[in-house]
């Protein structure tokens, strides 16, 4: 057994007895559908500068807007279409979140879990005992989940070592042929 420093933070998994009281919970995922309304003022006397900077004549042609008429000091179709085209691009992030209205709520699903003293409890995917604290990656013994320290030491690490050894053997044989 290696000596343990007294102040060492305990990063290992703790084995739990299942008859001890556990708080059970459901983590429920809720999705909100929202509508946000923003009013954006576009000044006619500022339009001409946008035509050069952000939107070129070819693009406006494609949108059916006569670029020479954009920014004329009048109310007409081309100015209105241009205003409606540039306004969404000029909305700031803060303006967007200011006035949100929830239109629908879905519950996407839920997952079960349990905790004791505020700590999550998980099952070792190899020995099926219950633990709290930090688990270990069980690859290559299992594809997902966590395994306990004992299984990590006794099964996972030896399996990785032998995989590594086999790979070295393969490379060695390939190099010889
Ligand atoms: Zn285990």
Write a structural description.
The chain has 177 residues and is an alpha+beta fold. 32% of the residues lie in helices and 24% in strands. It is elongated. The protein has 2 domains: 81 residues, no CATH class; 61 residues, no CATH class. The structure holds zinc ion. The site of zinc ion (ZN) has 8 residues, from helix 5.
What tags apply to this protein structure?
single chain; 177 residues; alpha+beta; 2 domains; 3-stranded antiparallel β-sheet; 5 helices; 32% helix; 24% strand; elongated; disordered N terminus; binds zinc ion
How many strand elements? 6
> What Rg, in angstroms, do the CA atoms define?
32 Å
Average pLDDT taken over every residue: 87
Ligand roster: zinc ion
Write the layout of secondary structure elements.
Blueprint lengths: L12 E4 L6 E14 L10 H7 L3 H6 L14 H10 L6 H6 L1 E17 L2 E2 L1 E2 L6 E4 L15 H28 L1
The chain binds zinc ion (ZN).
The site of zinc ion has 8 residues, from helix 5.
Brief account:
The protein is of the alpha+beta class and 177 residues long.
């Amino acid at each position: 057994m290696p000596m343990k420093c007294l102040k060492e933070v305990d990063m290992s998994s703790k084995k739990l007895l299942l008859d001890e009281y556990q708080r059970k919970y459901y983590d429920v995922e809720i999705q909100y559908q929202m509508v946000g309304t923003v009013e954006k003022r576009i000044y006619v006397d500022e339009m001409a500068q946008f035509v050069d900077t952000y939107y070129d004549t070819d693009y406006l042609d494609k949108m059916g807007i006569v670029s020479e008429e954009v920014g004329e000091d009048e109310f007409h179709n081309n100015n209105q279409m241009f205003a409606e085209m540039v306004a969404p691009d000029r909305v700031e992030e803060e303006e967007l979140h200011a006035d949100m209205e929830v239109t629908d709520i879905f519950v996407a699903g839920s997952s079960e879990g349990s905790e004791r003293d505020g700590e999550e409890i998980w099952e070792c995917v190899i020995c099926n005992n219950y633990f709290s604290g930090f688990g270990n990656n069980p690859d290559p013994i299992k594809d997902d989940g966590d395994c306990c320290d004992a299984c990590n030491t006794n099964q996972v690490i030896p399996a990785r070592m032998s995989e590594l050894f086999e790979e070295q053997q393969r490379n060695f044989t390939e190099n010889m042929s």
